[in-house]
Every structure is written in structure tokens, then in C-alpha cells.
Write the C-alpha cells for this entry.
Amino acid sequence: MKIFEFFSDSKHCSYLADQQSTMRYFHIFHCSESFYLGLLQRGWRRFGKYFFVPVCQHCKECISIRTLVEDFEFSKNQKRVLKNNQETALYIQKPTLTQDHLLLYDKYHRVMNLKKSWEYTPITEQSYHEMFVEGHQEYGYEFLYVRDSKLIGVGLVDILGDSISAVYFFYDHDYGHLSLGTLNILVQLKIAKERGLRYFYPGYWIKDHYSMGYKERFGPFEYLHNAPDLFEIPDWRIYERTNI
């Protein structure tokens, strides 16, 4: 297993306007499930063959969290989301790349550019393949959501060891009334429960941030209290509003 380590240049943070962001990367050609699980437990995330963790010099606001699957209970509103999507078909398969993927990805990011000023550049086949198709190994999947014979959502998901990890999700805002982002998380939690998995990793979380508050609706969860290196023990603690 070959690992190439590098660090990104410091750049303006996408979430906190007064902060700079720096990432530590591993480029791993054939990452084993066991090594990846160790990274996940230490706060790392994956895009393609790239694994990364924030190492910002003056800010520690991005916190790794994981839902305790066994203790999670679907709320009335969440059950309503599932009911409203009874006509939404779900297909689970290894990651693929089609023209429908590219069109939906671009449409989603054009809308987010207008709504939240996200940077937008049309995606190329090569870029999409590098981010979402490569490196899936035995643990990477895509969840395809189809309605009216149309692809309306794509969730990239990793299932490994005792965990399920949400890699990325994009969807058609024309179907916003279906709460597809919530649906994608609920589907993963439902699968995790059915498989007896212990943890659901929704990605990084910033407390009280307007675009990340939704993650608190999928508790109870633990947060990573320390920033362990590869051979250090991760310190996961139960989250309560008063302890962060």
C-alpha cells in the first residue's frame, strides 16, 4: 500500500470567513479497509484516493462526529420524510459515471453558487471520476435516488467495519420538497441499523454554524475530543451542549 503525504496551501475557509484552512492529505492507491477505518476513527475523510484531515493553525472548529446508531430513534418529522419518499426509488451499487451524474452535479452546484456563494466550475468527467469513482475499493458505494424516471439524487457512501460514512451528496433542487438531504442520511442510518453497525459518520461539524446545524438532528452522537496521529488513541466523547 503506497502512501504519499502532502499538505495544502493555506486558503480562505469556506465555512468561517475570518479563518484560513489547511489540509493534510494522504494519496493512497489501494487503501485497505482496516487502514481506512483507522483513519476514519481519527477524524479523516475520503474523496477518491485522497484522504484528508484539517490541520488549521489557528482554528479547531471543524469537529469529527459520529452517530451512535443503536441509540438513534427516528423522529416524527424524519418518519414523515421517509413516508413522503415512498415513490422515490433507491438503487445501491458501486460508484459509476454517466452523463446524468454530471448534469445533476452541475445543476446542484449552480444553485448552491447562487444560494450560498459556493465556488462553481463545471465538472469534467476526469474530475468526477477522480473524486467519486476512483478509490472505492470494496467499501465505496453510490446511492441513486430516482423519481419520475429521473435521477434526482446521488449519495456517495462508504461501508466498512462497524461503520457507515457519508462521503458526499448532491441532488435536484426541483425536488427540494422531498427533503432529499435528510432522506439520504435516514437511509444510511436505516441500513446501519439493519446491518448492526455501531457508527454513522456524517462528516465534520461546526457547532452553531448555520449550514451544519442539521447534523445535530441525528443524535445522540460522539465527538472526537483530540486530534490523534496515526498511532495515537482517538478520544471519542458523548456530546452534550455544555461540553464543547
